[in-house]
Amino acid sequence: MATHCVGLIGATGETGGSILQGLIQDGSFEIIALARPESLSKPANVALKDKGIQVRALDLEGSEQAIVAALKDIDILISAIAGSQQLVQIPLAKAAKVAGIKRFVPCAFATPMPVGVHQSRDQKEEIFNLTKRLHLPYTIIDVGWWHQFSFPRLPSGKIDYVVGFPNETVPGDGNIPTALTDLRDVGKYVARVIKDDRTLNKTVFVYNELWTQNRIHDLLEKLSGEKIPRKYTPAEKYEQKVDDVIAELEANPKDPVLRVKKVYNQYCLSVGIRGENTPEYAQYLGYLDGKQLYPDVKFTPYEDYLQEVVDGRAVGIYDEMRPLLFEALAEGD
Ligand SMILES: NC(=O)c1ccc[n+]([C@@H]2O[C@H](COP(=O)([O-])OP(=O)(O)OC[C@H]3O[C@@H](n4cnc5c(N)ncnc54)[C@H](OP(=O)(O)O)[C@@H]3O)[C@@H](O)[C@H]2O)c1
Description:
Elements: E1 4-9, H1 14-26, E2 29-35, H2 43-50, E3 54-57, H3 64-70, E4 76-79, H4 89-99, E5 103-105, H5 119-133, E6 139-142, E7 145-146, E8 170-171, E9 178-181, H6 183-194, E10 202-205, E11 209-211, H7 213-224, E12 232-233, H8 235-251, H9 256-273, H10 279-284, E13 288-289, H11 290-293, H12 302-311, H13 322-329
Parallel strand pairs: 1-2, 1-4, 2-3, 4-5, 6-10, 7-9, 8-12, 10-13
Antiparallel strand pairs: 9-11
Helix pairs in contact: 1-6, 3-4, 7-12, 8-9, 9-13
This protein binds NADP nicotinamide-adenine-dinucleotide phosphate.
């Protein structure tokens, strides 16, 4: 029997799609997908309706009164909105307070980081801080780095069908551990976290396993039989790229390719050089540790995922955005 009504923004996206699956599989939630009015007729939303999911219009550019009305009957509000759209959650958080939302899960679903090192993270933090200023009950959930973004290309091109980021460089000496989670497992964790009283007004870090880039390269070489060139790259190179792209963005602030370059290189520094995507650093920032909260979650082991990739059985992500990611990142050093 449904016990909580969950409103989910971004159900047609990658993260939101996984969350939707996790909530459905859990079976104890009533789910309402909240979509912007202009997207209601898109095939992805029509497919949700065909599956029996209630899809409701939510216009974050509309009046507060209209947003509050769209949140009617919702207990738990989850936002899995696109990385570039974080600030549209400002009116959402304000309306959630008026609507009496019992738990707001603003969009995090990324890697733990301090403030001031990453554009997208800083925008997320603006929303977290607004939520706290509103005294709105919340849970912030970070999930580590997706399996789907974690591995390099093979020289043969055999796994290009599923490469998310064309990682051409290895940050530092390749020995920094990083927390990986299969995108398909994100929703399983979210379903557990949002009905857990221990996580109310807390920040939680969930992840599957810790891997280094050298171990990932070793495993992919073993599974594929191919030798992968390792272009070890020092911090200064990534810092220079961030500085260069910031200068370019001054002339073209909305250029999506430049934006991807900036956030990617900022991730390389945080995840691959400073080692911030680890349980230790998350604990330092005050997170609850998902491994301690939910030791029984059955997740996809990284080796199994990479075997799927090499076997040609893996499913790609961001069908529409992949050409842009390749344009932004497949540039040698
Ligand atoms: N941990 C990782 O490795 C990792 C990797 C990638 C992303 N992420 C994080 O995951 C979060 C979600 O990103 P994603 O890449 O999964 O999303 P996505 O696939 O780009 O999907 C975005 C969703 O948000 C909706 N949306 C976009 N703009 C909206 C607006 N203005 N109003 C209402 N809905 C809007 C889209 O719906 P329509 O466009 O159909 O309306 C879509 O359902 C981001 O915050 C990002 O930082 C994490």
